[in-house]
Amino acid sequence: MIAGEVTAAPSSGGVVDGSAVQGSTVAATVPEPQRAHPTYHPEVVHGPLSVRALLRVDEALRLADAATGLTFSVYIGELGEDSRDTAQRLHARLADPDVSVLIAISPNERVLEIVTGSRARKRILDRDAHLAAKSMVAAFAGGDLGGGIVAGIAQLADHAGRARSDN
């Protein structure tokens, strides 16, 4: 996984209640083109988000990164029984975990995790992440996985504030 990259495991988005997402599994095997671009990931293109939603999420990630100096990433896929531990392990694999923020969503397991690195945590407090999670959950409940992700990224970036030269 590359920092700032939207990644997804084959699954279908769905509705969220309280603190988690609900959805049904839709698995599709898509053969990779022989001359695929190195960043081509069929599981992303054929995942739970439409192309339009992917573009909106990508733009939100780009804007959040540029505005804050932090690195925002999104993972959509299975997180397993200990979702927090899995999300923390995914976060640790990012290029610069200290300044990274990971939003990990498992629609099938109805789980949402937000992980912040040590330097990012100084700018995005736990209560801020909790508020962003509630906002995302509300959008997911309305059936808008992509919109919820975009709203969550924007809210987290707003809480982080502008990029600082001391970071």
Account of the protein in words:
The chain is of the alpha/beta class. It has a single domain (6-160), classed as Diaminopimelate Epimerase, Chain A, domain 1 (Roll). The chain is 41% helix and 17% strand. It has 6 helices and 6 strands, in the order βββααβαββααα. β4 (71-76), α3 (83-92) and β5 form a beta-alpha-beta unit.
How are the SSEs placed, and which strands pair?
Layout: E1 6-8, E2 15-17, E3 20-22, H1 42-45, H2 51-68, E4 71-76, H3 83-92, E5 100-106, E6 111-116, H4 118-121, H5 126-141, H6 145-160
Parallel strand pairs: 1-4, 4-5
Antiparallel strand pairs: 2-3, 5-6
* Count of discrete domains: 1
Structural class: alpha/beta
List the total number of helices. 6
Q: DSSP strand (E) fraction? A: 15-25%
Helix content: 40-55%
Shape: globular
CATH architectural name: Roll
